[in-house]
Design a protein that fits this description.
about 10% strand, alpha/beta, 15 strands, elongated, eight-stranded mixed beta sheet, about 850 residues
Length: about 850
């Protein structure tokens, strides 16, 4: 058997402000590290401190997956124990909801002001805690303290506690831990369980943490630094003991035996010190692997595996050891450093996480950047008793400045302030968050799409299958032209974000000049459309509806104006009017189309509702922008002096490559409907067009999310930050919408088609699930394209160009069924999406900020 095992011992100790415990060794301050486990006996009498007792007594609801009595409570348990014991002693009431474990009491009352409710396991405690709170436990609390130990309780969504303020305690960020433990799947788990909740729901709430290192990691997740309060951990007074060194060089490790703790490095250190012994106190799931490594190296007689130990034996280990070691890949603070220091034992560790804060390198211990450096420094320290004593005494002196009284009081002040402050509403928090803005715009586009489905259902019944097929072909032609507007919107949003279009009056002048130019262009294109109506109708396969096609070109010009307005609003972070205009456009389309159809214009009237709706929305957005940008700038004679920051053609010329890329993306979205009009009969083409409309609901969500993604990614890149979180948030919102939609497409496609479009348009129901997956892949490509445009990375154009050229040839190459036709579309979208996403995840190039020389033109040159 690897190592020498010692039997576990249990003792019970108490002080005036401590519970009696049968605790284990306290490990490094890490939410997954070992606890003062086991304190399940009665609480010793607590004497309130006079100063703290004078404060208003509070009722604190504490939510944690593991309390201080849990065998796996780790440093989280030690920290909670050290603070809760003081709060109760100072006259406050604490209700704890925590995970259970074998042998634990469901409800425990260690003190008249302390109640512990235990329920669920590591993964089920979160739902069980929500249910328990909903049923009344802690509902009368003054403040909620939630411990996020890699997985959030999602308390901002607990509407029954919406009036109770909350504080979040994060010992350290777990993003790397997820990957270390779970591999690639860990990245997804870390995003869903920790990153996204903290970035969105919790972002504007107060946070507590234990080191500046942890605070920096939290800021990296997107949490404002001003929201984070740092309080270092303390040391219990009875931890200060006299040293009684072993005659044999003794190295000590206290902590859980986990893979990320890297105990194999400690074996490397041990090998470099002949005659030394390594004492290991703690346990964990990596122990069998560690024991096998000990046997492989033939070191079983030099390594002592204690397992969990009592408080008394733990203090004895600290006092006997020559050096306390840790080689962990991540630590929030490392409480064992201070506990060892209380016994006059110096520590040596890898310089990660909060360890450079708990160890003053060269004064109270040693830090190393590499395992080899750690081994060399420890060997030299073991050989120099004078140096060891100097470091140990300096460490002991420093440890006296870290007390649990100070920690508990510092964090209690935060709880008091929060309890007295006005409670922010969830709606306000979502409104201020980037993901909330993205979700809001996604909701607007979803509603837009729902209204479009109403439009489809209405006009399939009014026009019949063949009439609607013609209308769908014309609309698909516009949707390709529509990308020109979307591309300009992207460019305008990016340039407005970077300040390249001017501010206030200068920006107003730019927009006014562009508006005049587009109004003139709309008139000219109306004339061209009338003259070319029949050739255009023949190209679209709608020769019998030339007057409907005559409105195609001017509709594109009006859409360009509306897109420019929305792009500038995006750059100004005015997302609400953008979302409202998206919904208003859809409603206006139905109303205007019904009026024109009622006037006897048929398919032409149904289509011309589009440009009329655009006119109405453009007029409203002009009013919104005028209010935002202020009054025009005039000279002494009252003449306007506003000038455009750059010409509209210059904007197009500088961004021709991303415009081309988005045009290709739109072709991938719509060319199958146009080709289908030529490949299938009237009813078949109409049914396929209807199925494509249903499937494209996911794409419209992506378009909405992209409205926030592009300026946010632009801002992050311009500020020198990693822009990828903006893309990951957007993809997460897309996934939340796509998953239920694809499930519906797969389970009830025929029923959905029948209810939505009528019994005459159900022929393509078998193709709907395939088209749903294809359009989801296209949505992924769309968001990635928006992200890459924000960064000025445009390699995606060549991928989309190849696929867009191949698609119409493949779709026209044979005699396909509706299902096989859709399957070809799916294959092409898979190729495009996977290639574009691979390029996007590698793109991190920063863009120039305000005042910089680089704009979109520079990026695309």
């Amino acid at each position: 058997m690897a190592g020498t095992d010692r039997p576990r011992q249990k003792t019970a100790t108490s002080t005036a402000i401590r519970w009696q415990t049968d605790g284990t060794a306290r490990h490094c301050m890490d939410p997954t590290d070992d606890p003062r486990s086991g304190g399940r006996d009665s609480l010793a009498p607590l004497v309130p401190h006079a100063e703290r007792a004078s404060r208003t007594p509070r009722h604190i609801l504490l939510l944690t997956d593991r309390d201080w009595t849990h065998p796996q409570g780790g440093g989280t348990g030690t920290n909670l124990y050290g603070q809760v014991s003081r709060w109760v002693a100072w006259g406050h009431r604490v209700t704890v909801i925590a995970g259970s474990y074998p042998g634990a009491a469901k409800v425990e009352h260690p003190h008249e002001r302390l109640t512990i409710h235990r329920m669920g396991g590591r993964m089920t405690v979160f739902g069980r805690a929500a249910l328990a709170s909903w049923r009344g436990i802690g509902r009368d609390a003054d403040v909620v303290l939630e411990v996020v130990n890699g997985i959030a309780f999602f308390t901002p969504l607990w509407w029954w506690l919406r009036t109770v303020p909350r504080v979040t305690l994060v010992h350290h960020v777990h993003q790397d831990h997820y990957v270390a433990e779970m591999g690639t799947a860990g990245r997804v788990a870390a995003l869903v369980a920790e990153r996204l909740p903290l970035q969105t729901l919790y972002r504007h709430h107060p946070f507590l943490t234990i080191s500046d290192s942890a605070r920096r990691d939290m800021v990296g997740l997107g949490i404002p630094s001003a929201q984070i309060h740092v309080a270092y951990l303390g040391v219990e007074p009875d931890s200060f003991t006299e040293t009684r060194r072993d005659p044999t060089p003794t190295l000590l490790y206290l902590g859980r035996i986990k893979q990320y703790k890297r105990l194999e490095i400690l074996l490397d250190v041990l090998e470099g010190i002949p005659g030394a012994v390594l004492e290991v106190a703690g346990d964990g799931d990596h122990r069998p692997v560690f024991e096998a490594e000990i046997d492989r190296r033939g070191m079983h007689d030099r390594v002592v595996l204690h397992g969990f130990v009592s408080e008394e034996e733990k203090r004895d280990l600290y006092a006997r050891s020559w050096v306390n070691l840790t080689a962990s890949s991540a630590e929030g603070w490392c409480l064992t450093v201070m506990e060892a220091a209380a016994a006059g034992t110096p520590s040596a560790a890898m310089a990660v996480g909060g360890l450079p804060e708990s160890i003053v390198d060269g004064q109270t211990g040693l830090l190393a950047d590499t395992p080899a450096e750690l081994a060399g420094k420890v060997a030299a320290l073991v050989a120099d008793p004078v140096r060891r004593d100097e470091l140990g005494e300096a460490a002991r002196a420093r440890a006296r400045g870290f007390t649990w009284d100070a920690t508990a009081d510092s964090n209690l002040q935060v709880l008091h302030r929060v309890a007295e402050a006005e409670r922010p509403r969830l709606r306000d928090a979502l409104r201020r968050s980037e993901t909330g803005a993205a979700a809001g715009l996604a909701g607007a586009t979803l509603l837009n799409n729902a209204i479009q489905l109403v439009f489809v259902v209405l006009f399939t019944r009014l026009l019949g299958a063949d009439g609607y097929g013609a209308l769908a072909a014309i609309i698909s032609g516009f949707l390709i032209l529509m990308v020109g507007g979307q591309s300009i919107q992207v460019a305008a949003a990016r340039e407005a974000t970077l300040g390249h279009l001017g501010t206030d009056g200068r920006l107003r002048g730019t927009l006014r000049t562009w508006t005049r130019q587009l109004v003139v262009a709309t008139v000219a294109l109306s004339v061209v459309g009338v003259l070319l109506r029949q050739p255009l109708a023949d190209v679209l396969g709608t020769a019998e509806h030339p007057w409907a096609v005559a409105g195609l070109l001017p509709t594109g010009s009006l859409w360009l104006l509306l897109s420019l307005q929305r792009g500038i609003l995006q750059g100004l972070t005015m997302y609400a009017p953008v979302g409202l205009s998206i919904v208003g456009e859809a409603i206006g389309r139905i109303v205007c189309a019904l009026v024109l159809w009622g006037a006897g214009l048929g398919v032409a009237g149904a289509y011309l509702g589009n440009p009329l709706a655009f006119v109405l929305m453009a007029l409203w957005l002009s009013h919104v922008l005028a209010k935002r940008l202020g009054a025009p700038v005039v000279d002494g004679a009252g003449e306007g002096v506003e000038r455009a920051a750059r010409p509209l053609l210059g904007l197009v010329g500088d961004n021709w490559l991303p415009i081309l890329g988005l045009l290709l993306l739109a072709a991938l979205q719509n060319v199958d409907v146009i080709v289908g009009r030529h490949q299938f009969d009237g009813d078949g083409a109409g049914s396929y067009a209807a199925a494509a409309v249903a499937a494209k609901s996911v794409v419209w969500v992506a378009i909405g999310v992209g409205l926030q993604l592009l300026p946010e990614a632009t801002r992050r890149a311009a500020a020198g930050l990693d822009p990828r979180p903006a893309l990951l948030r957007a993809l997460a919102v897309l996934a939340a919408v796509a998953a239920p939609a694809l499930l519906i497409f797969a389970l009830v496609p025929h029923l959905l088609m029948k209810l939505a479009f009528g019994p005459d348009l159900t022929q393509a129901s078998s193709a709907l699930p395939v088209l749903g997956v294809a359009m989801t892949l296209l949505a992924v490509a769309y968001l990635t394209v928006q992200y890459m445009v924000a960064l000025g990375e445009l390699k995606f154009v060549w991928v989309l160009g190849i696929v867009a050229i191949v698609e119409p040839f493949l779709l026209s190459a044979g005699d396909f069924t509706l299902l096989s036709f859709a399957t070809i579309v799916l294959g092409l979208q898979l190729v495009a999406a996977s290639a574009v996403l691979a390029l996007g995840l590698r793109a991190r190039r920063p863009v120039a900020g305000r005042g910089g020389a680089a704009g979109p033109g520079a990026a695309t040159a």
